[in-house]
Amino acid sequence: MRILKIALLNIIFYTLFITFTSIAIPFLGSLVVIFVLLFPKRLALRRLRRAISWYGAVIIRILPFPFVRLRVKDYSNNDVAGPYLFVCNHRAASDPFLLGVLPYECIQVANIWTFRLPVLGFVAKLAGYLSVREIPFEDFFKKTCGLLAEGVCIATFPEGTRSRDKSVGQFHGAIFRVALETKRPIVPICITGNESIPPVGSSILRPGLIKIHLLPAIIWEEYRDFSPFKLKNYVRDIIAKEVVLMDEGK
Questions:
Q1: Distance between CA 201 and CA 177 in Å, rounded?
Q2: In this structure, are residues 89 and 243 in contact, taking their beta carbons and an 8 Å threshold?
């Protein structure tokens, strides 16, 4: 029965994914042209980023349903003003699509492979997505600070690569230097359940329940005296503890 479910999931998902993407990407490309021609650049980018979020939300919420279900719990402080720095653990290649659930204008700090994807990589670059590995830190720092000043949220996976054993790896410090400079709230995002959607080294999806927890925002007053090293480990510990509880079914 499980083998049948896996087969059905992959047949249905990839058929819908190819069909949806073949329609959505040209449509998205047309919108980009229209936005650029008719609207100021700032507004065009805002619309493009929201369109990317909607695309990701459809990919993760609708196409694999009911074999893959998504449960989101938001414990963040709604009274804390943004823009936010979203710091996420990294379980699977599907993680970037999951951020489509965020109701904010947002860009991602993505790995190099994201920008090498046909069409999608071009759209990500056009939307201002960043790779800290492809640009000098000084440029990364300047661009992220500029985006936050414009009201754009930044989402990042500071482990740099997905976990292979459900543990939370060590964090890189770049985004935490940005936090200390800009004094923006840090919102930890914990993701579990998608480590087999798909598993490492495979494109075969498995049925499952993906959980996303948005934890309370860490505001400037809480971390103002931290060093980047202390701050990244502080946030990592918060995420690691929550991930354990989520894996235990809590």
A1: 33
A2: yes
d(CA 51, CA 35): 12
State the pLDDT at residue 161.
Answer: 79
pTM as predicted: 0.88
Question: Residue 53 — left, alpha, or beta (φ > 0 → left; ψ -120 to 50 → alpha)?
Answer: alpha
> Under 8 Å CB-to-CB from 121, ≥6 apart: which residues?
114, 115
25-54 pLDDT, tens digit each: 787 777 777 777 787 878 778 888 888 888
How far apart are alpha carbons 163 and 159 in whole angstroms? 8
pLDDT at position 119 is: 65
Give the pLDDT score at 35: 74
Amino acid at 229: F
Q: Partners of 153 in the beta sheet?
A: 106
What's the total number of domains in the chain? 1
d(CA 76, CA 126): 29
For 96, the domain range is 69-247
The contacts of residue 166 (CB under 8 Å, 6+ apart) are 91, 192, 195, 243, 247
**Taking the CB of residue 181, how many other CB atoms lie within 10 A of it?**
13
Q: How many CA atoms lie within 13 A of 127 on its CB side?
A: 29
Q: How far apart are CA 48 and CA 29, in angstroms?
A: 9
